[in-house]
Each structure stands twice: as C-alpha cells, then as structure tokens.
Task: structure prediction
Amino acid sequence: MRVVVIGAGIAGAAAAWHLAEHVSVDIIEREGHPGAHATGRSAALHTETSGAPVVSALAAASRPFLAEPPTGFTDHALLSSRGLLWIARSAERHLLEDKAAAAEAHGVEVQRLDSSQCCDLVGVLHPEAAAGGVHEPGAMNIDVDGLLQGFLRGARRRGAELHVDAGITAVTERDGGWRVQAGERHWDCDVVVNAAGAWCDPVAALAGIAPLGLRPLRRSVFVFPPPEGVDASGWPMVWDIGNRFYFEPEGPMLLVSPVDETPSEPCDARPEVEDIALGVEELEAATTMQVRGVRRTWAGLRTFTADSVPAAGFDPDHQGFFWLAGQGGYGIKTSPALGRLCAALILDRKPPLEPDDVEALDPARFRARR
Result:
C-alpha cells in the first residue's frame, strides 16, 4: 500500500509516523518547511479540561506517548509542568462547576478554588475577575517543535519521504487509487490523507469531493515582560472561562491571547492591531499588571468543524480519501492518538479508542446532514 499525506503539520506528521512502519508514505507540504502555520504558532498545553468529551478522550490517550516517548523519538522530555487555572467572574461561576464536573467524570484531577485561593496562586489577579477557579495541576506544557520533529524524523527513518515547496494543484481518482499533483510533480497512491489544516476543504475541492464546511478562525497572541520584581515562572496558565483572555509564562516573558476567533480564509495569518489592543485591555482589567511594551505578536488559524469535533476517517462517498481535519486548538495534545487512529483505520486494524469515540470523529456525520 502507498499513502500520500497532504500536510506536514502535527496531524500529518503524526499520521505519517504511525503509517510508515507498515506502508510506503510520502508527505507533501506546500510551504518550505513543516509546521509553518497552526502547528508552529501554538501555545500548546496538554490539558484534559478543554474541548468536547471526545477531545478529552484523545488527550488522555495521547498522554502516555507524550510523557514517555518511544526510544529514539527525542533526546529530551516533551512535557514540562505548568498547570491550568480556569477563573470566572461571579456571574459565571456556574461554568466553573460544569467544567469541574466534566473533568471529574473523565477521571481528571481538578481542585475547586475560591477567590482568595486563586489570588494566592497567581498574585496579580483581581478578586472580582477571579471570584472562583478550577485548577488542573496536571496540565503540562508541550514541546511542540520537539514533538513535530520527532514524528518527522521517525517517519523518515521508517522510509517516509518528505516533499516541501509542493503546493497541491490536482487530486484525481485513477485506476482504483489516487494521483496527487504539485505542479510538474505527482505521486500515485492507494490512500490520500487530507491533513492540510485550514486548506483541507480546498484540497477536497481539487479532488471533486464535497467540503466538510470547515471554519478557519484566527487567534492572536502577544508577549510582554512581567512587571519588575514579579516572578511569574511558577504560575499556571490562567484562562478566563468567559474566553476574554488567557495568559501564561513564556520563558522570561508572559504570553497573552484575547482568545479571538475571527473567521478567515486559509492564509498566512497575521494579528490585527485591534485584537492585540483588546487583549491588553482585558488583561489589565483582570489583573494588577500594566502592559508597558509588547515585544512580539503573531496569529494562527485554528480550524474547526461545525460541531468543534475533529474529523478523522474515510470520506463515505470516495474510497481511499481520508479526512484528518478540524482539530481546532487541540491538534498538538491529541496528535499521538489521532495519528494512531488514522493508521488503524487505514490499515483496517482495531482502533485505539472506544467505538463511540471513533463514531464521533467519523466525517460521515457531516454527509448525513446534507
């Protein structure tokens, strides 16, 4: 069997790593290097308290791999301690209880905190912005580049070939399989894995396949130095449950997002001045900190399905066309499990998830709605 994986971000790299042990794999990347878009711009945290239930299941299934990667995958740890503190204003405290209850139902350790405990944990918080909190102490930072490079190195060792600067120009069914073209180059295969991120629907259109209705949404980030004399290194990530902002330590700086979700065409996303200004305003309203100078800004596209659950499975109307799309903001923390699921379904092996979770990820659910 020969498989072509379109996209060398974290989803495509993970799928290639799992597949290349068993079949011939080519990875096709439109940019000059892997991970140029969403993967390379992610503030990745391994948390099991964000996302739909199946996302939490994928994150839980991925954690053993991230905590103890296979021998030779990487020469350093992929996870480091961080923690996650969800905070809420008084009127939104019921959302905290919903969050805590959902986490406990999945066996995730969380701690319910009152306002004073939140402020003790992160001393710059205003009590009115943190009327209560839910702390997930086991949330961990993920070394995104280490994970991506580990997948790509391992895939190449297993025989996979990576082709960069190869924007897809045609995808056609032929002789019971597929031909993928990038300009004058082409690859014939039995299975196409569409892991092109924000470009997944346009890739499908090249193949004459109906889109899933994916929604690329821009999210912006900035970093600034913490106030003089403030040691933020031990803080958890702090996330306002009303999605006004989040912030976390980023080396000697603090990383902040206004949690914007601006619809966008697939593109090389850039932050808007208004979004950064909103993030500054929300941060200063919720904390004692003043942003005296933004050192760096960037943005990325988080691509969602209509139900905010990833799509992982064969297109029901086109044999051999496999969707691996719509990971939203959860692609890094779920990549080991999603890559393994992709390989299992393509190789006709037992999936690593419960049947209900596999069904929840099946892209056929969108065809049934038409």
